Structures are given as C-alpha cells and as structure tokens.
C-alpha cells in the first residue's frame, strides 16, 4: 500500500521549499516556469510574481542587475522580468535604427533624441547594450559599434548630470575624491568606475597607514578612529600621520610621480592612479589629501603654478601668512617644502596669491585643464575624443566661458560634425561677447555653406569593380593588407580608381614620386593603430597572416571577421531565444488580462599616408 501511495505522489505533493528548489533549477527556462504556473493553483502559487522562483529566474538571466535591489524590497520579479525584456527589445530597435540611419553620416547631435526619452529604466537599457557589447565571437561588429556609441552617450549624460549636482552642493560637501571620480567617469564612460570602489581602495591604503601608526604610537588617536571622525589638533601627532603615510605610499606601495611618461592621460584618472601607482602632481595630491583627512589631518590644495601642491598649517588655523604653512609635494614622495623651496621647485619667484587654498571646483578646473591640453596634443586621435570630453566638462563648470565655447565651435567645424550645434554655440558666443563678431561671422558663413552642401548630397557613389573602367582595381573591400613601406596592417573599407585627393595633398605626400603616381587605384584603409589612411595600390600587398584589425570604427563598415577577411556591413538580427518569446505570451495569459503585449556612421576622416 505504501508503494501504491508513493506511485501516486506528484509534484504538487512535495513540500513548498523542495518545490521551489526544483523550480529554481537553472535547466528550466522562463517559458517552463510559465507553463508550470498554468497547470494548477498549487504551482501557480509557487510561481507567484513576488516569489523566489521568479527572482531566481531574473537573477539567472540578468545577474548584474541584482545590485539595484535590496533584500528588503517588495518586488514583483515577474514585472521586472517583463520590463527588462521590453527594454532589451527597445535597445535592439534603437541600435538597429542607428545602423540604418547613420551609415553615411556622423551621428548628429539630435541623433540620440530617442534615447533621451526612454520608456524603460535606463539601467535595463544599459544592461542590454552591455549584453550586445559582450557577445562572443567575431560577429555582430556593427551592433557592437553602435551599442558602444549609444552607451557612451547615455552614461556621459548621466555623469554630466551628477557633476552639475555635485557643483551645486555647499563647498564642505564636495569631496575632492568624488570630483576626481566624476572626471574619470566622464572621460572613460565604458569603464567600470564608481566612487564606492575607488573609496574602498583608498580605505585599504588608510588601514595600512593605521597599522604603521599603531606600531609607532599605539595610543595615536587616528589608530582607533574611523575615517573622518576626528581632527587632530597637535602638530606632532599630525606629523606622525604624514610620516606613516609617506612610509606606506612611497616605500611599501611604491607610488611615484610619472616623470618618464608625464603627458599620458592615464596619469589624470584616479582609478588608473590607484592601479598603476603613478600619476601627476594634482592626481597624487587628491589621493594624498583624501587619506590625510580620513586620518584627522587637514591638508589643503594649493593651485601652485606648474606643480600642484598641498599645504599643512603649522601656525594658527586659518592663518593668512604663507610662512605659517609647510607645503607638501605628493609628486615628490610627500616631501615637505618651505616657501623658498617651492620656488626652487619651479625655478622662479611667485606672488603670495599662488600659495592660497583653492576650492574643489578650482581643483576640478585644473584637472580638466590638464586634459584639455593633452587633448590638443593628441595628433593620432582623429576624433579628438579627449579634447571633446574635456571641453564638455569645462563648459559644464563654466558654461559662459567664451574662449572654450569658441574652441568647441571650431573643433566641431574642423571635424565637420554637428553644424546645427555649431550655430547654437556661435549664437551664444555673440550674445556673451559682441566683440567676437568677426570670428563668429566667419564660422557662421562656412557652417551655413556646409549645411547647404549636405542638403544637396545624394549619398555615397556606388562603384563596382566589375565595371570595365575599374579593371585596374585589384583589391576588394574587407581584405586584410600590409603596407610595403611602413609595415602596418590594415583593412580596406573603400577605394577610388585614381587618387581623388587635392593637389596640395598629392604634393605634400609626394605621390608623384611613386612609379604610377596618382594615376592608380587608391584605397581607404583602417589601420591597426587606430588611424585611417589613403594608400596607393602599389604600396599594398595581401597579408599572409591576416588577423583582426583593432580599429575603433571597424564595426561601422564591417559586420563580421571570418578569420581571413571582413564581411561588409549588413543588417544583423539579434533575437532572444525562442523559449523567451513563448514565455512572454504564456506569462501574459497567466498574470494579466491579455490587454498588454510584449513587443518586440560615417565620420569625416582626416586621411593620411600613401
């Protein structure tokens, strides 16, 4: 009889916890859960929207999203699942539309308008873009290209909003470290950088300093206190903290100023300073100042010319006498300097105003100013991305700065992008400073001409190698080539039957010295160093060992790398698994009235090289 009862035992007879454990198994899909919930009331209750089963289904499908929820939140995981699915469909639609709209033009300034009015949570949308970027294999290059552009824009907009909120706070609530992180995030929006993780790394260093302090002075007030809880008044106790900091930072952890590669932009990014343990005076000073304040020593930033410093008060707090302070060079391993030694450091005398303390906004201004100067120096980056990003940051802090507004207008004009935005900037400049009418008028005239030319354009010319007049063209688009003279690897993305550049370019590049001169096919190529060149046919040869070309714009022209060559850009479809589509229909029948339904770039190249 017991055997007969055992035979009659079914899924619904199992204890609730065991039933949940089975339904949470990772071999079951969302569609399976939907079908199970259709069978009876017992199983429908086990698969309730706020229950463990749908939470686990959500976690298995999108594990990175759980960080947005608290264990105490009452969440309808089924609704979250549906919302995330819809966000995925919306992201795919927008990425696909970008590929169709912007293949033959740079994404215009209003091209992201669809994204600014998203009908879904932004973190769901971003997660889908990351899923596209993290697709394995050599396919989906076009989707990845536009997903990256959209994610770049979306994150920068959020960071810019956070920066403006930061600048509106009272000065005592503006952390120097947070400001540095915001700049870092804006210039590296695709990197995983957050204040919490940076602060955790700084806290680890602070704990190491406490250990050193404990060995030298077990009763030191900084040993037992938590970050920022106390302010040590005694100068000798402060000195002990600074000595322990120098020991940990420069002797144990080997932090140092990057004298060999001073003008590398990585030196300005706080997360890279922590990774590489090197930086420039201002980035190392932000780190040094943050640790000191967490240990109860109030250091202040000094906007010293050519070399950012910190100052440490030795006299009465708030003193205006520059000789009441010792100056600290975080770039020089925490060396403590007198006023005269500060002048020796830069090689000339400066007035007292340069020894004064500066605000967090002024510190950020100097950090962004450094990046601006680096952006102007970068000749290999044809998109001038660093210069564009640093201009955005500067104008977020000082929106009416005519000099930088003019630089931004000229930059966009030079790149041939966003002419409508150029006109808006120029109008703003004219309102701020009418004396700029000459420069403004010149740019307005040429920008309007550019807009008119663009209206007259009929699209790119379609050329066929099979035409008799193109019989001299030997190489196809997508082939991996090697330059005979310069040795670089590249991929062809366009060609002309003869050199189409102007006489000045032909003369500067000494094209006439080639055996066939300009009267031979020329190829547009994407080079492995990130540049774009215009190369003569006689200087190119097939690469006997073809490999992927790590160019940032490869996805604009090609959809896939086959292992030997690239396939030209075509429309790709990325769909959810079939069972998920079924889930959406099934779930709607079970949990809703049935009324709802789940629904499914060309940049102006500065061409170089022969």
TrEMBL record:
Q: Which Gene3D superfamilies match?
A: 1.20.1280.50, Hemimethylated DNA-binding domain
Q: Name all Hemimethylated DNA-binding domain ranges.
A: 472-569
Molecular function terms in GO for this entry?
DNA binding
The name on file for this protein is F-box protein 21
The processes (GO biological process) annotated in the record are: apoptotic process; cytokine-mediated signaling pathway; ERK1 and ERK2 cascade; hematopoietic stem cell differentiation; hematopoietic stem cell homeostasis
The organism's place on the tree of life at top rank: Eukaryota
Q: PANTHER family from the xrefs? A: F-BOX ONLY PROTEIN 21, SI:DKEY-261L7.2
